[in-house]
Every structure is written in C-alpha cells, then in structure tokens.
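Handout, page 2. Input:
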Amino acid sequence: MREHKLDDKYNAKSYEDDIYKFWCEREFFKPSEDRNKKPYTIVIPPPNITANLHIGHALDNTIQDILIRYKRMSGFNTLWLPGTDHAAIATEVKIVQKLKEEGLSKDILGREEFLKRAWQWKEEYGGNIINQLKKLGCSCDWSRMRFTLDEGLTNAVTQVFVNLYNKDLIYKGKRMINWCPCCNTSIADAEVEHEEEQTHLWHIRYKIKDSDDYVIVATTRPETMLGDTGVAVHPSDERYKDLVGKTVILPIMNKEIPVIADYFVEKEFGTGAVKLTPAHDPNDYQAALKHNLDIIEVFDENFKMGNLVPEYEGMDMYEARKIIVEKLKEIGALVKIEDYTHNVGKCYRCHNTIEPKISMQWFVRMEPLAKPAIKAVKDDETRFVPKKFETTYFNWMENIQDWCISRQLWWGHRIPAYYCEDCGEIIVSKDRPDKCTKCGSKKLHQDEDTLDTWFSSALWPFSTLGWPEKTDDFNYFYPTNTLVTGFDIITFWVSKMIFSGIEHTGEVPFKDVFIHGLVRDSQGRKMSKSLGNGIDPLELIEKFDTDSLRFSLINGITPGNDIRYMPEKLESASNFANKLWNASKFVLMNLEDVNNDFSKMKQEDVKLSYEDKWIISKLNNVIKDVTTNLDNYDLGVALQTIQDFIWNEFCAWYIEIVKIRLYNKEDGSRLSAQWTLNKVLQDSLKLLHPFMPFITEKIYQNLYNNDDSIMISNWPKYSEDNCFIEEQNKIEELKEIITGIRNARNSMNVHPSKKSKLIFITKDFEKVILESGEFIKKLGFGSEIVLETNKNSIPKNAVSIISKNIELYMPFEDLVDMQIEIERLNNKKDKILLEMQKVASMVENPSFVAKAPKEKVEEAKDKYEDFKRLISSIDKKIDELENM
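Output:
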C-alpha cells in the first residue's frame, strides 16, 4: 500500500539504496521479450578493471542513463549493455607492482602463474567500478555483463584475427613502431600523446667530401648521430641546391653519407639541414625507405648503446650523449648549443617518453578498412553529434597508417599464430593446430605477444551481443543506436569500432556518436593528480546525494563542449531537490481526503478553471520542448526547461494560486485543483526522472497513479487538446499585472500587511478577473477588486500598472500614509544634507583641491553632484505628496 506522504525533511540517503535494490529485484533494467517493440541499444564504453569512478565516468554514464531511461519510458525496448575492459597495459603494470612488493617478478613467476595472479586481481578489484556505477543509478542490464577476456569475446577476437589474416589484412613485418621503455611494449600511434618539453638544439658540422666547406645540421638527439645514414634538405631550399647528391663525412664515425632532398624537411627548423637516423625517427625512417638508405640501430629498447663505437657499448643513452657532445667539442664539430622547446611523444598510460623503434610486429593493413568507414560517415549512416567532430574522424582516417596490434605483454588476447620450429612456417588458426601444415612437424609454439586492448574493444558493439554467432540479441539489438563518449577517443576507439563493424557485420555499429566535452575545474583547467584538482564523485554523493551530482553534471552542458565543475552547481541542485520535495509534500498533504477512485480520474472527469488550464497548457509546451531537446541530445537545455517550469511556474505560481481553493473544502473547484496538482506533478516528475531518478521515484510512488515504478511509466506526450492558448495568455497577463503590483509596492516600501483596492479597466478580461479574483487579491495584496469601463472614477494619485489588455490602478492613499511618508522623506533628506555638507567642505577647500590626488578631488565632486540630485528628487516627491 502506498502511504501518500513524504518525510518532513529531504534525505536521499534514507531511500536511494532501497530504490536501486527495488529496480534490480523487479528486473526493470532488462529489455522485454517482446520483439515487436522497437529496440534502442547503448553499449557502455567499457571502463578498465583498474579504474575507479572519476568525474568523467560520472558525466559519461549519467548521459547514457538519461538517454536509456527516456527511451524506456517512450516505449522502446531498451538495452544498456554493461561491461569492463581488461586494460592490458594498465592492469599488467598494477600486477607487476604488486609482485614487486612481494619480491617477485613476471620472469620468476612465469606466464601461467602470472595470468592466474591477473585473474585473481580481476576478481578482487575488477568489480569496483561496476558497484560505483550502480551507486550512480545506472540502469544497465547487469545480467548481460560482459568482459573483454570472457569466453564469448575471446572467441570473437580470435575469429576476427583469423578472418583478417586470411584476407591479407593482417601481416607480420618489420616496421617502425612506438616503443614504451617503461611498459616494455609497442603502442599504437593513437596511444601517443604529445607534450611540450624544454631541451636543447645541438648544431653540428658535417664536412662536405672533397671540400673545405661544411653543412651544419641541428638535432635534439646528438647521440643518435652514430646511426646517421644521410642528411636531408628541402628541395626548394636555395641554400643547399648545389649540395644535393653530394656526400658528407659523419663526425666520430668518419664515414660518407649522402645528402638528399625531401619535402618532409622544414626549412625553418634549425639550419634547414637535418641528419637522418632512420632507426630512431619516423620521418627519417620513411625517408630511408624512399631513398634506399641504410637503417642502423644505435641503442636497444632499454636505451643501452650498441657496439657501433666499442667504448660506448652498454652505456645509458643519456650518459653516452654527454660523452658524444664532449667528443664533438674536442674535434671541433660542435658549433653551438641553444635552448629549444619541442613536442615529445609520451605513452598515454605511463606518460614516459616514447622511442621510435624498428621492430618485428603484427599489423592491420588499414587503407582497405578505412575507405568504407569514411564513406559511412560521409553518407550519414553514422553521424557525429555535434557534426564538427567528423573533422577529427576524417583527419585521422584519411591519413591513417597501418595499425600495430601486437603487444609485448602477457595479460590480454594471445595472438593465434603458431610457429613451426622445424621449417619456420607461420600458421594462423582459431584452434591450436596439431602439426605444421607445411612440413607436418608437431614442434609448434604460439606467438608470445598479445593483442592491443583496442583490438578487442573495437568489436565491443557486436561481440557483446554474441557475434560471430547470429544470436537473438545480435539480430535484434544490432546495430546499436547511440554511442556516448568523449572527443579524446575518437581516434583510439570510435574509428576502430566503425571500420570493424562494417568489415565484420556489414553494418555500422551505431547510428549516432554523441560527443561530450571534458569536465574541467572552475578555472577551466584539466583535472589531474599533479594539479590536485581532481574530484571524487563518490565523495560528492556522500556529501550531497546521487541526484544532485547528476543534476550538477548535466546543468548547463552543450554537446561537444567542455564543462566547468563548480561546487555551487551542487548547492543549486540540492536546493532544487529540496524545493521539489517540499512542493510534493504540500501536494500530498492536500490530497489526503481523496478517495480510491482518484487515481483513475481523467481530465474530462473534472471541470478545469482558468489557472488549471494555464498550467496544463504550460506543461504541454514543456513536454514538447523537452522531448525535442532529448531527441537532439540537448540535455542541458532539457534539464533547464524542466527546472524552470517546476520552480517558476508550478511552485512559485500554480501552488500559490490554488491554495485558496485547497484550503476551502466547500469550494466546488477544489477537486479539479487536486487533480491538476497530482497530474502536473506526476508528468513533471516523469520529465525529470531521467536526470534525477531517485527523488522522482520516491515521490512518484506516493502520488496517485497505477504504475509500479516511474521508470516504466509512459513518457508524457504533447497533445493539441491541451493547448489552452486563450487561458494561458490570460493567466500570463494576470501574472504580469501581479508582478507589476509587487514591484510597485517594493519600490514604495509598502508593508505586506497593507492592502489596497485593485481597480481594473479592461474589455476582454472581466470574466477571468472575476473568476480569479480571490487569488488576484491574495497574490496582489488587494482589499477588493473593482471593475470599471473607463477612467472617470480613478483617483488622480493612483499608481498604475499597464499591460496589453489591462489597466490596473491602486489609490495612492491605500498604499502610503502621506504624513508618515513625508516625515520619512524629510528624515532621509536631513541625513543626506549632513553627508553633503561634509563633502562640500572638501570641494570648497582650496587646499584640498590643490593637494589631494586628482582622482580623489573628482570623486568628491561627483559625490557632491549625486547628493544634489538626490535632494532634488526627494523635494519633488515631498511636493507631490503635499499637493495631494
């Protein structure tokens, strides 16, 4: 049984957990088995199992929950599919750190034992963020929870690898890759972040062969010169046109290297001539391939110098740099050293400097996959919201390089490639082969490397639904509808999902990609540990409540733009929740005497007054606007529209207007006021529910309705039948008059207890004024209402409020006791005269004018003139009153 009442004080902590438990127990988050309903699907961007909920997660998942709750209430068969990512590098680093604390390492433990530890770690800590998402109110179907390393997804990953390999879209080759020396693995181009760093630019002389001249090159890495195999200049650089085709002598190594011309050289960088070390720079590597230059490694992946110069062998790279620079000075090859700022590639996980490295790795051939993915977005099969983010997508996809997918890690999907130890044949197979397909040998071993985390994440929209099997879920829920994510992973993830979906399912994986911005601090800075400005959403929930956090994150957001976290937004959200709670409590208190049939009553069963039709018509417009806003992903506008209606129209006006009807149990229109209160509050709660699910559920369950839960109730629909335009316009004009009365009384300092006659002159508003007379008197501080057809009987001193169709007059003497007002004005004048005399003594003093700072003198003169104007204004008011 519903109690139809609320606690005196709003305390979300007393009911949030119980409500979430109720939703789960009733399985409201699960889609129905009715496949005739239209599906709406979101797959969650899977958080890493290493992660804890941060403010970005909170924003991202609040947006998804808003969309899924809205669509669920709108009649769609909704699925919000949850899951987590194994996060190869991040998780392996955590486990290695833990082993280190125990005095162990990967090598000591071995692969099998290490993976056992990894799974134990996942079971112990991997569910933390899921529990935190539940605390946020996320209405995911937890029965469909997936993990990128579970059996079904692993099967999909293996199938995709084999398929791509058989199509020659996956190959193994020696190419330049990004090497992270901290994580000890290759990483993809999209995983490299660039940061500005202070360094030096070393200018080094390379002697031109058979000449006394030199060419000077500038470099930020002098230690790599040992592996130089050329010098490059820009083809249009006039300074070096006679040098191209000649050779120069490489200092220290004393060997000849050619001078080539290539358009990648920036004429403005350094001297315009650059050294080429193809083994340690991506541009140099491409130039070497193009011009057939040697590729010579100077140091290994651990930054230890090779044997090019025996005395440097085994040295740390930076130690060798110092010695090489000294050697260059000694032989007269170092021209100068200058300060320099440049962009340095960093690992997106550990933020250590990336080293370009020639390495044998597995790659995906990207050009054939990128073309249909580009076309799909250009043809609006998938659209970005806002559209401007298509540019980021196109820039990446149209200039894409082959994707390095192998990682030198143990935690992840192991590459399904097997090597014959006798003949060297590589066999790529979904299942482990018994023997070599070439020579029949049974001496096979599997590739030690695992796949890039993003390889499995790229399949997320369809692998989570059962692909490669044609499951009921896959056939019904795929393609999905909306992907919600930040702009920072368009290249990492969104692009990969689009080309993977098209390649493996023949369809784009989602219709819309809704891009939101980053949550920044109040100064607009990115949140980071180093700045100490991070925000823990769980702490905010503990201090306030879940709904207030969700409200504060969505309030004011616009698609694609960053938002600033401001504590006052949480205060504002909490105040709104309190306002809603108290208004709802008032409504329920005034519904205590309704009978059991009240919840079954329809609009046609009650006789609506002007103000009832006004609030229903206003709500009708809000329903239309909010629905449009949500369909267009304008979530911030939708929330503001709902809040404005509840606070400014329902609470501030309608509740105040109908109090007279509610408090008079003999009033024949009381029932219609009660019905309208219940109806408008219920529909307002429905509109607010996706944003603030807990408080809306708590209140809704105590109102008069026939729904088990607000989250499975029907979304309000706009209706032409509820467009009461005449009533809406008339009540709006009465509101304008009442507001004018309040403003006039405030400006005249009229005490609320002092009532005045309200004299109306109007042609078309007589009926509404008479029917609304009681609330007009109450809200307009009126003693009586008088209707006149002309101004003949209006007192000359009356205060007027004029609107489009109404003239209102209030006799001045009703508002002000003239003798008391004259006395008050004279007292005010005397105080101003005293202040004026003090200022006059300054501006009329020649010594002050001569010695004081000019601005002080001008300030005093301005103040004196202001006092004169005030005195003149007061005298005028006193004269007017005395003449009355």
